[in-house]
Design goal:
Radius of gyration: 19 Å
Helix content: 40-55%
Number of helices: 13
Strand order of the largest sheet: 1-2-3-4-5-6-7-8
Structural class: alpha/beta
Distance between the termini: 28 Å
CATH class: Alpha Beta
Strand content: 5-15%
CATH topology: TIM Barrel
Order of helices and strands: HEHEHEHEHEHHEHEHEHHHH
């Protein structure tokens, strides 16, 4: 077990730093649209106290596509400093150009991060062989393990199960997949056809419960930005489902309550785009400002009112 203060129950069940609930962190901006470093510190403390297993920086929710290389370096080091010896970090580095991705990985200071997460090439719509070669080239030069990221709803490029399985056997440095298609049958198939150490992580809040029941090792969650404790307790309840020492009637009631509450929250924060929705929720929790960068915009007043009512009704605590 590592030196990080991770949940020993989750680690014992899954034997990985990246089991359980990871949070796809936002990047806080001030009212002028600049990086808010103090807010990063506040977020990190909130995530740590909320019991998440790890934090992902520079993913989709972090608006990485709107940050310059220099800004990313500043943000990365602030997260590293704030979470040193507390929580492991995954760094998102992606490009739809293979040579550019390899260059970015080579130039980026990855000290303090445990792995790189890289999304399936977007816009180009490559063949499955092209996707395989893209990640093969990346892992061959990467100083860190790589977590694949499949999110066809954003990239218009769907990495097939066969390609994922092929990559899992190509290199031990390819440690897993963040599978965000929302098709939970894929979770079971990938889990069945990859080696035991290969991580299969849900990247879709809406299907998290079914994904874990299908064999996922956990989730990288947007909602955990605001509800880390609730997401974490729900995941632990799922691990207890087959534990005969636990009172199953109470557990089933808690899980149904968790699922109902969280699904309603997911619908709110994704209704007008991510991370606009989750950033507004976090602003109401005094964690950061709701500011996003164009082409993203703030959510409507009507949706804001709904989120405020929800947050007032359901504080983040263990159900």
């Amino acid at each position: 077990m590592s030196n990080y203060k991770i949940n020993p129950f989750i680690y014992e069940k899954n034997k990985s730093l990246f089991s359980g609930v990871g949070v796809a962190s936002v990047t806080p901006f001030d009212n002028n649209g600049n990086i808010d470093l103090d807010a990063i510190d506040k977020l990190c403390e909130y995530f740590f106290l909320g019991g998440v297993s790890y934090v992902v920086v520079q993913g989709t929710t972090g608006e990485s596509s709107t940050l310059s290389f220099q800004e990313k370096e500043i943000v990365n080091q602030r997260f590293v400093s704030a979470l040193k010896n507390k929580l492991p970090l995954i760094l998102g580095i992606s490009s739809n150009s293979t040579s550019d991705l390899c260059d970015l990985i080579s130039r980026t200071d990855t000290a303090g991060f445990e792995a790189i997460m890289s999304v399936c090439p977007y816009y180009n719509k490559p063949s499955q062989e092209g996707i395989f070669q893209h990640f093969k080239n990346a892992v061959d030069i990467s100083p860190l393990p790589i977590l694949l990221y499949n999110v066809p709803g954003r990239t218009s490029s769907d990495m097939s199960d066969d390609t994922i399985i092929k990559l899992s056997s190509y290199s031990e440095k390819i440690i897993g997949i963040k599978e965000a298609s929302g098709i939970t049958d894929r979770i079971a198939n990938i889990r069945k056809n990859t080696h035991d150490e290969f991580l299969v992580i849900s990247g879709d809040d809406f299907t998290m419960i079914d994904a874990v029941r299908s064999g996922a090792d956990g989730i990288i969650s947007v909602a955990a930005n605001a509800y880390p404790s609730m997401m974490n307790s729900t995941y632990i309840q799922l691990l207890w489902e087959n534990d005969k020492s636990k009172p199953q009637n109470i557990l089933n009631t808690k899980l149904k309550s968790s699922e109902f509450i969280l699904n309603n929250f997911f619908e709110l924060i994704f209704d007008e785009g991510n991370p606009s929705g989750i950033k507004f929720a976090m602003s109401k929790l005094n964690l950061c400002k709701e500011k996003v960068r164009l082409p993203l915009t703030e959510i409507s007043n009507k949706l804001k009112d709904k989120i405020i009512k929800f947050l007032n009704k359901y504080p983040d605590n263990d159900l």
